[in-house]
Amino acid sequence: MRSKPDSSGPVFRAEGVTKVYRTGAVAVHALRGVDMTLSEGEMVVLLGASGSGKSTLMNILGALDTPTEGRVFFRDRDLTRASDRQLTAFRRDHVGFVFQFYNLVPSLTARENVALVTEIARNPMTPEEALERAGLPNRMDHFPAELSGGEQQRVAIARAIAKRPEVLLCDEPTGALDSKTGVQVLEALAQVNADMGTATVLITHNADIQRIADRVVVLADGRVIRDEVNTEKIAPAQVSW
Ligand SMILES: Nc1ncnc2c1ncn2[C@@H]1O[C@H](COP(=O)(O)OP(=O)(O)OP(=O)(O)O)[C@@H](O)[C@H]1O
């Protein structure tokens, strides 16, 4: 069953997005006309084989990259017409990113890593609240080297959500984790999605993880080959791989 109504307009809308990377004489067609939407509060799992274009699409949605052709809207804003400066402001104000590798500052504690964001964001939560929401209330004064991979990833999630982004883009957040710690990370993401209504895109290689999604989008060779509502959504704790 869908857990959330789909009454409002999409947060993201990609229309006919193509991306061609040119390296010398070689052209790689990473995306070949992708249409996709992300609705308010929705958790979308993006699946596909290696090289199918998942990261390229996510980077374009998050304005880390620009399409070769096509349009990307964030609410009513056409990102493909925005300047670099506007795109930087868009990322800073609206998007949280979580990557496979946590990119924490090793010499700072969990709390201090999150504070790097809360000190510059416009309407942040406290680092403590962010770490609690990410499921890590008891490790705030630990350094990254004192934390497990799953705990480090939850610090990265806390850092990503501390500015209260409307969208969370997660590229293989469990890719470096075993299944037990991977489930804990998925639980943190599902909790944020449920409590804060943060629309979330989650890239994974792991087909089992699609079961926690509201909707599943599958890419193959730069095209969307499946886009379906998941009618039997399960809790992360029920996922095993
Ligand atoms: N900066 C780049 N320059 C040239 N080619 C690129 C670049 N980034 C990605 N590509 C190519 O674009 C295609 C899609 O890559 P992308 O990283 O989006 O796939 P993916 O589905 O995320 O793969 P993976 O699951 O392995 O991360 C691949 O063929 C890749 O080699």
Automatic annotation (TrEMBL):
Keyword list, A-Z: ATP-binding, Cell inner membrane, Cell membrane, Membrane, Nucleotide-binding, Transport
Keyword Lyase: no
Record bears the keyword ATP-binding: yes
Signal peptide stretch: none
Domain ABC transporter, chain residue ranges per copy: 12-241
Family: Belongs to the ABC transporter superfamily. Macrolide exporter (TC 3.A.1.122) family.
Protein name stated in the entry: ABC transporter ATP-binding protein
Species, as recorded: Rhabdonatronobacter sediminivivens
Lineage, uppermost ranks: Bacteria, Pseudomonadati, Pseudomonadota, Alphaproteobacteria, Rhodobacterales
